[in-house]
Amino acid sequence: MKIPFYIVDVFAEKKYAGNQLAVFLDAENLSDTEMQKIAREINFAESTFITKLSPENNAAEIRIFTPEYEMKFAGHPIIGTSWVLMNKIFENQSQKITLTVPIGEIPVNQSGDLVWLQAAQPEFLDTFLAEDFLTFSNLKSTDFDGKFPIQEVTTGSAFVIVPLQNIKALENLILDQGKMNEWLHTHCKTSHRALYFYCLEDGKLISRMLCIEDNQLKEDAATGSASTCLQAFLLKYYAPQIEVINHQGDFINRPSQIYFKGKLSENHFDIRIGGKTQFVAKGEWEV
């Protein structure tokens, strides 16, 4: 059996930047095991599998796999898959579609060369002490931005949001994999465990996402799901309305730009992230 696939770079201002994504069509007959094996073979941060396509409704159902496990929600796979559907698959060139993922329906729209998704309402989980991070990182107490808490937040996938004082602390960050992994398993409320460090310096938002996967410490070039959590965090603690670009991937030579446009009103979070997608390749995958 052969199935078509596309490769794109997501949250990328140009090719060979941002976060890579493989999008597999006609995946309704693939087993969970086959999807996982394909995702591991291609070895991008995530791959998506379109299991149901409804062009007449501008809708699709997808599943998202890392090389190690399936995710309930992830931002760059949704943005990238939507771009492929709107620009390469759907003949009506619709600017609005709906993607269904395990957490539910995600509205997506395209405006110019930006594709935007609207995230689910956030849940704010436990807060932590900066001292915890001194045990598994090279950070000092003065590296943390004390104006904000350190908190686990989820909009479908959970991340511990860690505010730092400046770019220098972010750039020089070193983590002890074993101790970090132990801390994550001890303290995180969900099965998805990751750290999202950020700083706001001179009005520029810069971030780094680090997690343990395949028993390795990994850094992501652009993390849409973490960005929705960070946007919720900033709306709650920084300002009730925000429009800014989140720069991620700079320190691993995959510069990414994730556009934020959000608003908090009467305890309702309107969280939208957007980004550009660059077409790289298409082909057939033999299953």
What does this structure look like?
With 287 residues, the chain is α+β, with helices and mostly antiparallel strands. The protein has 2 domains: 2-117 and 276-286, Diaminopimelate Epimerase, Chain A, domain 1, CATH 3.10.310; 123-274, Diaminopimelate Epimerase, Chain A, domain 1, CATH 3.10.310. Helices cover 21% and strands 45% of the residues. The chain has an 18-stranded mixed sheet that branches.
Return Rg in Å.
Answer: 18 Å
Q: What is the tally of helical segments?
A: 6
The rough form would be described as globular
CATH class division of the largest domain: Alpha Beta
Supply the CATH architecture of the largest domain: Roll
- The whole-number mean of residue pLDDT values reads 96
Assign the CATH superfamily of the largest domain: Diaminopimelate Epimerase, Chain A, domain 1
Order of SSEs, N→C?
EEHEEEHEEEEHEEHHEEEHEEEE
Can you summarize the main beta sheet?
18 strands, mixed
What structural category do the secondary elements indicate?
alpha+beta
Unreliable stretches, pLDDT < 50, 5 or more residues? none
Overall helicity? 10-25%
User: What gap, in angstroms, lies between the N and C termini?
Assistant: 5 Å
| Number of beta-strand segments | 18
Number of self-contained structural domains: 2
Portion of residues in beta strands equals 35-45%
InterPro entries: Phenazine_PhzF-like (IPR003719)
Protein name: PhzF family phenazine biosynthesis protein
Family: Belongs to the PhzF family.
What are its keywords?
287 residues; alpha+beta; Diaminopimelate Epimerase, Chain A, domain 1; 18-stranded mixed beta sheet; 6 helices; 18 strands; globular; Phenazine_PhzF-like; PhzF family phenazine biosynthesis protein
